[in-house]
Predict the structure.
Amino acid sequence: STSEPMVFEGTETDIISGVVINTVPVRVSFEQTKASDFDVTYMKGADDRKIMSEYSCSNSCALLTTAGEYDFIVETDSPWKLTIEPLTKTDDVAFSGKGDYVTDIFTLDKATIFQLKGEFSDFTNYIVYLYTYDAAQAKWSSSSVISELESAGGKVDTKNDFKVSGETDCVLTIEFCDSKWEITPVHYEATLLATDWIPGQQQPTIT
């Protein structure tokens, strides 16, 4: 079961069989001893999906929202560790890190505009997914709120805004290979009409 974290370790390509996940959602974290290419794929009955595919990275992270029995296929040339842990509720609405990450579950009182800030060197592809829980259907759904591919010479800072609706459980997944990033709320939509906000325009920080 997944009431406690499960940790698996190996060297190079391997298969982890019969992993039973009873409590969802869970964070699946992958670490290896050097930055190199790797893939992690799950098989669940007739369903199989590549949940991580990285180039020259040392870690990654993914979210699973369906319970059941899984097999995981790890493809790499390095010693590695795979950790599966249930998400917990958090009061935090600001997050920061380096590389891929899955936040814990948070709930907003009202619609909020968030801003992603990050830095990278030369080339990066970064994606942020928003997962929301539909209590009526008892399932999670996802949408891409940021998807960018950027390249430039030297170190570059990037900034993007996105909106999250209130009064529902939320999880953010960040795909940002080995680069630093932070996500912070920049405006609470208490009186601001949706038509008044222009995507990409930074809103004043609420203090």
Observations:
- The radius of gyration is 18 Å.
- The CA atoms of residues 58 and 68 lie 28 Å apart.
- The longest strand covers residues 139-164.
